[in-house]
């Protein structure tokens, strides 16, 4: 059953998406290092923080109960989120914050497309319309950029892949993050050691750099914990609306602070994406409202009518 909306839950959810929306401000401070070094340090320090949380909460021993299949899924999730982090950091430090925001605007549409491909979910006409508008937007933006929006597409697809794995993996948020970190940490640590040995590491070049790299751990974990708490107290339909706060803030940062160019053709592309998301969100809210109707009210409807509604507006994943 969907949880009822609670004010604290909305606050936690808004806090999570606000922090994610302000990531360009933080990761822009890490432009002194390469994107790969930042991701390696982020993996290590996020793992350190989450292990400490598990240890202090007496849950560290639960990691021993993870079976081989779950570890394999965690490895796939780890690879997907590492690619996502790396491309995002590269996008921010290379001055492509708006394109990063585009990736997270596209992400819900890519997730729906993955549901069709991997889970054979059936879509309503509104969802097909949203996907078509999203595809048209990518074409328009490809013409505008003079190239496909690679950063946006990789961000959207990698995060959708991550979400796909999280849909089937049997781990809670903390253990999931810990497992993903444990898989990636040996590679990240090896890379950091090589940089240190060759004198190319920015991690120890100054106390400020050291502190900023360490901060990637709590900066990564805090919004994830806020999101986990909110998801238990707020309906998914509400969380679905709140999620657009993140790319909206990121886009505002790119345009207003970084002064990235936004020619009319690019605005048209974004307008198509926003229209697609409006159609998609309206359809999702309508479905959520219908599914919350009392059981006795739905039972009173003629069976033929319910049959037609179920066939033409079936919920993905139902």
Give the beta-strand count.
0
Low-confidence stretches: 295-318
Q: Using the CA coordinates, give the radius of gyration.
A: 21 Å
Order of helices and strands: HHHHHHHHHHHHHH
**Average predicted confidence as pLDDT:** 86
CA-CA gap between termini: 13 Å
Helix content: over 70%
H/I helix tally: 14
Percent strand: under 5%
Instruction: Give the structural class.
Output: mainly alpha
Largest sheet: none
> What gross morphology would you assign?
globular
Structure, described:
The chain is mainly alpha-helical. It has helices at 7-21, 23-27, 35-56, 68-93, 97-119, 125-145, 150-168, 173-197, 207-233, 236-242, 245-257, 264-291, 295-299, 303-312. α3 (35-56) crosses α9 (207-233), α5 runs antiparallel to α6 (125-145) and α5 packs across α12 (264-291). It is globular and about 55 Å long.
Summarize the structure.
The protein has 318 residues and is an all-alpha fold. Helices cover 77% and strands 0% of the residues. The longest helix has 28 residues, at 264-291.
Kindly list the characteristics that best describe this protein:
318 residues; mainly alpha; 14 helices; 0% strand; globular
What's the SSE blueprint?
Elements: H1 7-21, H2 23-27, H3 35-56, H4 68-93, H5 97-119, H6 125-145, H7 150-168, H8 173-197, H9 207-233, H10 236-242, H11 245-257, H12 264-291, H13 295-299, H14 303-312
Helix pairs in contact: 1-9, 1-11, 3-4, 3-8, 3-9, 4-7, 4-8, 5-6, 5-7, 5-11, 5-12, 6-12
């Amino acid at each position: 059953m969907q949880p009822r909306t609670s004010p604290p839950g909305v606050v936690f959810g808004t806090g999570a998406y606000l922090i994610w929306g302000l990531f360009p401000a933080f990761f822009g401070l890490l432009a002194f290092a390469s994107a790969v070094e930042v991701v390696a340090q982020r993996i290590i320090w996020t793992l350190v923080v989450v292990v400490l949380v598990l240890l202090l909460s007496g849950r560290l021993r639960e990691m021993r109960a993870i079976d081989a299949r779950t570890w394999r899924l965690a490895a796939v999730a780890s690879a997907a989120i590492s690619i996502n982090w790396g491309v995002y950091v590269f996008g921010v430090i290379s001055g492509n914050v708006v394109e990063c925001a585009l990736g997270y605007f596209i992400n819900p549409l890519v997730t729906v497309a993955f549901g069709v491909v991997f889970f054979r979910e059936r879509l309503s006409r509104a969802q097909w319309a949203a996907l078509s508008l999203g595809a048209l937007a990518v074409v328009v933006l490809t013409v505008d950029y003079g190239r496909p929006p690679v950063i946006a597409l990789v961000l959207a697809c990698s995060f959708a892949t991550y979400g796909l794995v999280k849909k089937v993996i049997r781990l809670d948020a903390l253990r999931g993050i810990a497992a993903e970190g444990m898989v990636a940490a040996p590679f990240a640590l090896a890379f950091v050691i090589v940089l240190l040995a060759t004198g190319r590491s920015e991690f120890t070049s100054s106390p400020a750099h050291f502190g900023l790299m360490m901060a990637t751990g709590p900066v990564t974990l805090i919004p994830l914990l806020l999101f986990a708490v909110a998801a238990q107290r707020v309906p998914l339909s509400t969380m679905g609306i709140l999620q657009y706060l993140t790319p909206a803030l990121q886009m505002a940062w790119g345009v207003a602070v970084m002064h990235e160019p936004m020619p009319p053709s690019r605005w048209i592309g974004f307008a198509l994406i926003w229209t697609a998301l409006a159609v998609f969100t309206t359809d999702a809210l309508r479905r959520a409202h219908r599914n919350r109707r009392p059981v006795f009210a739905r039972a009173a409807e003629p069976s033929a009518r319910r049959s037609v509604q179920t066939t033409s507006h079936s919920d993905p994943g139902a």
